[in-house]
Amino acid sequence: xxxxxxxxxxxxxxxxxxxxxxxxxxxxxxxxxxxxxxxxxxxxxxxxxxxxxxxxxxxxxxxxxxxxxxxxxxxxxxxxxxxxxxxxxxxxxxxxxxxxxxxxxxxxxxxxxxxxxxxxxxxxxxxxxxxxxxxxxxxxxxxxxxxxxxxxxxxxxxxxxxxxxxxxxxxxxxxxxxxxxxxxxxxxxxxxxxxxxxxxxxxxxxxxxxxxxxxxxxxxxxxxxxxxxxxxxxxxxxxxxxxx
Length: 244
Known about the structure:
alpha/beta
């Protein structure tokens, strides 16, 4: 899909990969729609990116808020060409130590919310006869690590939703793609649902190998343009295919 003049909706846009992706799509000539809960950060980013950027505070776990946001976009631009499901959160705990309420919350944000977003934009994309959805998964789903069961299971479920959606929506001209980032230098490790100390230790240990969010954003832009099924930024020695 050509990005120039397209309308691109990015969730989790207030920081990290989402913020970098907003920069990347605007640089490619797209009109960015920024969704996140932190309005102050969204407003600052929109001001930085330029006049043709729409910032909408939204809790993507709320179907009502998502529908309202999509309606605002439709009224302003008349279309949504690309959805980038980036909002998400981590959780570090052993199987015995996973708090069920925390796990439910994680599933709601990492798995259910992307589905809510997809269901909200697919009718518009069907009517347009074209569209692109990119779901941000995790490189951690490509291997097995102690303490990762809650997080990786939520993202593995997103992987299957994405793959089935790609099959179901192909005839409508809608591509659904997956990206599996590697460790990325963002606020992710400081905002996990639980296991903060473990996450921060991992972040410190990964400083030398963590990717900048701009690299993930670049790969997301490539997925939009090519419509490929999936890509990953996980180095080969960690079970991925990335040579960079």
